[in-house]
Fold this protein.
Amino acid sequence: MEATKKMTTSTNQTIDWKLFFNKYATPVLLVILISFNVVFTPNFANINTMWNILIQMTTILLTALGMTLVIASGGIDISVGSVMAISSIISAKSLGLGVLPAILVGLLVAAVCGLFIGLIIAKFKIQPIIVTLPMMIGIRGIAQVTNDSQLLNFDSPAYSFIGTYKFAGNIPVQVLIMIIAVAVVYFISNKMAFGRYVQAMGDNYRASRLTGINTFLVIIGIYVISSALAGFAGIIETARLSAADANAIGKLMELDAIAAVAVGGTPMTGGRPNVIGTVFGVLIIQIITVAVNMNNIPYTYSLVVKAIVIILALWARRNK
Amino acid sequence: MNIVELAVRKVKAFDFKKFFKDEGALITFIILFLFATFKYEQFFTVLNFKNVLRQVSMLGFVAIGMTFVILIGGIDLSVGSTLAVAGVVAAKVCSYGVAVSIIIPILIGIVFGLINGILVTKLKIVPFIATLATMLAIRGIAYIATGELSVGANSASESFIQLGRGFVFGIPIPAILFILAIIVAILISKKTRFGRHVYAVGGNEDASRMMGLKVDAIKMAVYALSGALSAFAGVILASRLGAGQPVAGDGWELTAIAATVIGGTLIVGGVGKFSGTFFGVLIIGLIQNMFNMQGNLNVWWQNILMGAILLGVVVAQSQTGKVSKA
């Protein structure tokens, strides 16, 4: 007995490297990416570059956090970019009501979108990708109609606060927002029963139903959280730019968010949500974008680089 | 038992639920068709039918490939990017003759498809992410190769231009090719060993492997097929526009998935048919045609209505027990 145990430990030790890469592929990739850029990208190792990366990654991170729960439950939500657009434009439109109401209206609109998506998925038992595809098209349309597809500029220092304020003159408000968002989603997925239900549904939907999980409510909860986070991302972006553009905001955001979640190690077929992994995934995606910009490499090359990194990350953890 | 009773029993035996379940796309198409006929005067004309068929044929090729991919339980997001590269290449080589400008892009499409297949089978990356990555990379290639500019087709290559704009017996050539492709796809899916293997792999991959099917090879072939068909769509589009555009096919992957799903193919794989995809493609073409005839709908309202109609069709289908494998 004791001998067998020892033997298994020793075999484990011989393949330790493989296990190590399986488990820590994303952080390792991130470290490689950062080291590479510190050496080769001029001005990369600079505090302003870091703040820039952090400011720019906020929207992807917020959407990707929601997407982590969605993907962990075995679903997918490709409507998040459109939800960003609708809450951005409607929030900016309702600035007449005051700053706080405008933010709340934006969040509410996003949550209602999520409620609608979740209801349809849960009630009619349709695959999430098929539900969120028409929603993606339709919600973007509604967002564009809201202001006749025109750019909506506004001047509201109080509203812009949540996108432009800097603590101690340096630290962007986004850093605080991201820390809170990551903490909340981490708490939901790792400490609350809700998080375990999400994982159970992703692992085995039928079994989770049979064990008495109210899958109906959990599904609705997941998509409300995902949409609300996307809406919040849209509002912050709107505040940062002091303008809402329903055509541009959140375009292709769903792909970046999904890629970040996948790179971060949450299994695409459902299972344990890896919230911290998602943070690493978002950092990787964002650093690629920023580094390509800083090196004056055309945007088009960043597509190819992103593709290669996504494949590398998933290949490294393929045996999981 | 008299003959009337027999007839009644026969009618009762006709399973309406099953009919709706199996032919949802056909029924939706007929409803939309009748609606359009009564609502728009210019709809029921030969010229309009020709135009609609020509317009949908390119989406049709992509959707046929997508149906194969979805049938094996995969998904291919790279089709739009492949279409763009193929169109650009076709426009660049069209002065060497129409055969060259078809074959070379299709070969490129096959290579892209094989790359997808390798990522999915050998590197074991889930299809959504694998083809998302190749979608980005191939689009990048299209931009890089063209400097983000449209590539004009040599105006001397008349036969190449005819491919997209010409007629045979008064029918647009792309429409003829699309209908031929659908017939071939139906035959492959129903009459060949490969077709049965596709359904088997999509239905239960592990069981198929145990039964000795070469699952990886089948998947590779299907992704290659999808790449080839998308490339062919790109060739036709370039021929029709007289130019290969690096932005072409943007978002087509979603439209093709929508057409496939409306056609009754289950997104989880193993269930579906190509006649359904045919009507799925026609439904999308019909909706766009109605938008054009309405005339006063801007593109945003078109998107809202398209989203609502797609959602309605999907929900209606799920109610007949169709898409309910969630």
